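Moderator note: this is an archived Q&A kept for reference. The question asked for a predicted structure of one protein chain; the sequence and the answer are reproduced below.
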Amino acid sequence: MAEIVIVDDMNWDQEVLRSDIPVLVDNWADWCGPCTLMEPELEALANEQEGRLKVVALNADDCPELSHDACAVELLPTCVLFVKGEPVARIEGYHKKDEVMWEIEAYLPRRPEPAPSAKE
């Protein structure tokens, strides 16, 4: 089961900028109702895409510089997809898991092909 890591100034570089796989940064706040509604959607996405996508959470109130400067957030919730340390896609407002996936699928590594089954 994939774990959504909380990122801040201390682990931003390691968790987001240096990640080997794309990272979806969920910018949220405690007071944001749509953020709370979106949390289970992102947890499900993290589990379904484990190994292809890392989902992290950034509290915009606790880390306003990262949220504003690195993610260019103007409203919450906002998810920003980083690939090789660069922001490549943005999803603003509440979205269901499948809608988020539709927006970011093109940036994710391909799924490995299933091994051919042995015929008897």
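Archived answer notes: The beta strands are 5-7, 23-28, 54-59, 78-83, 86-92.
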